[in-house]
Design a protein that fits this description.
Fibroblast_GF_fam, disordered C terminus, growth factor activity, two-stranded antiparallel sheet, IL1/FGF, Fibroblast growth factor, eleven-stranded antiparallel beta sheet, Trefoil (Acidic Fibroblast Growth Factor, subunit A)
Amino acid sequence: MLCQSFVILSQKFIFGLFLTGLGLTGLAWTRPFQDSNPILQYSDSIRLRHLYTASESRHLHLQINSDGQVGGTTKQSPYSLLEMKAVKTGFVVIRGKKSARYLCMERSGRLYGSLQYTEKDCTFKEVVLADGYNLYVSEEHQATVTLSPMRARIAQGKKIPPFSHFLPMVNKVPVEDVAAEMEFVQVLREMTADVDSPDPFGMTWEESVHSPSFFA
């Protein structure tokens, strides 16, 4: 038991050193809207973005498919359109707009899309780098989100693999304007908010009011 505790503490110490090292290179944390209730009030800070990443020879957008597979597409698509919601300072939840699946990570570092949200697997630290690109880090599994076949385990002095630095891109996929419906959506959220729900952040409500033409 003592040995296991020592290993866990050592891993957390290494993870802290990694983030400290990033800070020395111009790191900044995202600043979500300040509010005392992360479930209801943070629900208004949804960003619709495509997460773009590239190597010297290839560029990709992260996408979450309807079957739960997470991969990359060279062009923006309905499956690469993501809802990004700050749940507390520096931490975000990411959900595929069309697939209605949360971006989550297994213990091994493998990414998958889940219809149900679990905090430890589906919450990521958003690290904004000096060049404008972001890292998305799972503190629970001490790994970064990546589209590389290599698992991006956090370790001091270990190089981050390709396709791990993401640039949030403005959406160019046609989406019907639903601004007039947002007040109604907020009322529904407040009436049905449930911390124990598989969708505690109310993201499903946005899905339910969008025109079916978006998913054609």
